[in-house]
Predict the 3D structure of the following.
Amino acid sequence: MTVKRVTFLQELLNFMGLAERVHLAWISSAEAQKFVQVVTDFTEKIRALGPNPLAEYAAGAKAARLESNSDHRSSHLAGDR
Amino acid sequence: MKTEVKRWLETGIVDVFLGYKRMMNHPLPYCFVKADLEAVDDLITGPARYSLEKIATHIASVRPDLKIGMLARDCNQRALNVLFIWNQLSPDQVKTVNVNCCPSNLKQHGDCSYLEPEKAGTYKQRVGLGKALDPQAVEEFSPQERLSRWMYEFQKCIKCYGCRNICPVCFCKACSLENKELIGTGALPPEAPIFHLVRAVHMAGRCIDCGLCEDACPVDIPLRSLYRKVNEIVVAVFDYETGSRPDQSPFSVLGDTVALEPKPI
């Protein structure tokens, strides 16, 4: 079930333009070497991709909320949307 | 059709019949009953549509003994199939009158409020995504462009829950979209894209592409395109066509064998 859901999610995120940032691997507690390998490889891949672009949107949305809360009436009157 | 519906009600083939009636000049969903047979004369069909099967599930959850008749287009039929599979309705308790729907090679004339979705304005065309776009048309944009266009659309969301409330196959008693731990509350827009993607994920194996969510959305988020992609993935990866299959969705059953491998890094 997990592999079904994750495969689906990977395809969906790719459609949204957020490819390659989800990875699934099965690692037993006896496979320390494999764990290190997977985490190292994935970290390298993510580092190469750079920061998650969603962070920028989240910061932008937060700033917009603060602004509209503190200055709601005046901006509304000025017709500034 | 009206004579037939009257006969159904009179003879007890159905206890209630869900259709549309013009009220205050609007075609609204209406529940016809035996006690008021004359009202059936006002039963209308036309492009107006609503998830009548959703009303049926609400009725069935309170009165599972009632037999329910309803008008059904193709999308209503697909939704009914899904609701049967998910045990929200039983095939024995629902009887349908099929009405004209989308045009096809076999029938030229179609009755649906969705035949010609509004054209996107110039600004939306430049920074967002139009209604009823094929997923392929969306995929022509680069990944960065897709992200910015989807985020433009999602950030308009006013979290009215219209998409969920109209959805014929949304029937869960506890909805993840109202779980405070999962979706933050008290701020607009809701956390994009989490809010929208959670819903999209839950549509896998359920969405029957009726397009009512997109019709209902007050800020014109192209939800139908998003869920069409969801359906495409479900067909491509699991070979499951939601709404036209009698078996359970791949997300409800484990299956006998593991057919998928995790993707390489």
In short: Chain B has ten helices and five strands. The first strand of chain B starts at residue 16 and ends at 23. The longest helix of chain B spans residues 223-238.
